[in-house]
Design a protein that fits this description.
With 119 residues, the chain is α+β, with helices and mostly antiparallel strands.
């Protein structure tokens, strides 16, 4: 991106970055109203190794939460970026069947959220 100056003498790249940061903060605030817990700002503001354990016992490994939305019937949906190569030593880990990383998870099936960094 060029460093073209805007009318207020701020480099354009800095302005775009600040606007992006504000948008991310608004998305996190919205998600915190829909989901409880520490994991919302952590998992939305960072790309890392996270796990979502489902009520079934299966674990979905994700990199980040992209968005949280309320469906038309009141269910809360978590849009995530899947971890393509999750740690295989974890029992019941979900392995994505293809190279696509986007997924939506119904929050009512999530029992636990945690970090997978040391696995």
């Amino acid at each position: 991106m060029s460093n073209t100056k805007t009318s207020n003498s701020e480099p354009r790249g800095d302005l775009v970055l600040r606007l992006h940061e504000k948008l991310v903060l608004k998305e996190i605030e919205h998600a915190q109203r829909l989901l409880p817990g520490w994991f919302v700002p952590r998992m939305m503001g960072d790309a890392w190794f996270f796990g979502l354990k489902l009520n079934s016992g299966e674990i979905i490994a994700i990199e980040t939460i992209l968005a949280v939305n309320e469906g038309s019937h009141g269910d809360i949906w978590i849009d995530v970026r899947l971890l393509l190569d999750p740690p295989k030593k974890i029992p019941n880990i979900f392995i994505p069947p293809c190279g696509r990383q986007s997924a939506s998870i119904n929050a009512k099936f999530v029992a636990l959220a945690f970090e997978l960094a040391d696995t």
